Amino acid sequence: MSSVQAQEVPCIIVGAGPAGLATAACLKEAGVEPLVLERSDAVGSSWRRHYTRLHLHTVKKHSGLPFRGFDAHVPRYPSRDEVVAYFEDYAAHFEIRPRHGVTVESLERGKRGWAVHTDGGTFRSPHVVMATGYNRVPNRPDWPGQEEFPGTVLHSSEFKSGSDFTGQRVLVVGCGNSGAEIALDLHEAGATTALVVRSPLWVTPRDVWGLFPSQISSIRLSALPVSVADFLAKGLLRLLVGDLSRYGIDRPEEGPNHMIWTRGRVPMLDIGTLKSIKAGEIAVHRGVERFEGPRVHFTDAASEEFDAVVLATGYRSGLSALLPDGDERLNARGLPTRFGADGGEDGLFFIGFRNPPTGALREIAIEAQGIAACVAGSPALLSL
Question: Residue 136's closest CA among 295, 319, 357?
Fold first, then answer.
């Protein structure tokens, strides 16, 4: 490692997405100038890579970062490009200037804090904020015979538009928010579309009766014990959505909030996919068993031929490759067990690794302010 850039700084933020930007703004407001390291060439790089039709699934009123919300002219659910523009404006307003093109390779605990080793040298600080996000490394499952599939297999992170597949037969594996919206985009673009729903799934409309954002309900329910919130949520979803088992979507035994906190499994936020499923326009299968040439065999004994397969199968955080060997901060899924100001006793913080029903950006704004308060009040800053 080169030591040319091994200077010591008050705080290092790894990542210039919304979590990194929010934390940087809060620190600057508290009088602390952070060093922001970003491996891409722009802020909000994950949002820039998303598919074209994507919109924020939470309302702009409850999705703004600290001290500066979305402009009044932006619609309730901002588009991908509007979200990117917001991040750019946010960074410019708070004069956040990340060091772009810097890839963090590992973190090392030292006597006076942390050494952050990168491909451009080593940086040192008593405080490090990991804001790399939970969608850093695409998860790509593999099935028997898949290598012989003659068509296109791509991860949802590589999908851009349904218009690229007009007239083709496309299978979408995974029914989270991305999978459901990609399936709808493909259908509307003229592709023959099928969707794999591998396990029981809660489905909730983005807007209750087309008027009331479900995020607002989730925020109100979040003040209650999980068991109580789930009791109320189950009753509401039975009323709003009903029994979907006839369409290939089973209702889980666990409540939606319990599934989020224990397994990270969020409900599918429906923006029209369910209507197309009920109309028979999007087929549903229970799971992939194997590939045989262009044909995919499913666990429900059905099989179909496809021209392309989109893997909406989620991501891994990639944190385990960065933290010291034996570090016990991560759970079995490779995600932090403590967030925001909670868990930063030795100067290492995590932000933006949750996707709660109350809204990921809303939680980022809360976590960022807590981290900034901890860093700004730390005795370690006095020695710099």
Answer: 319
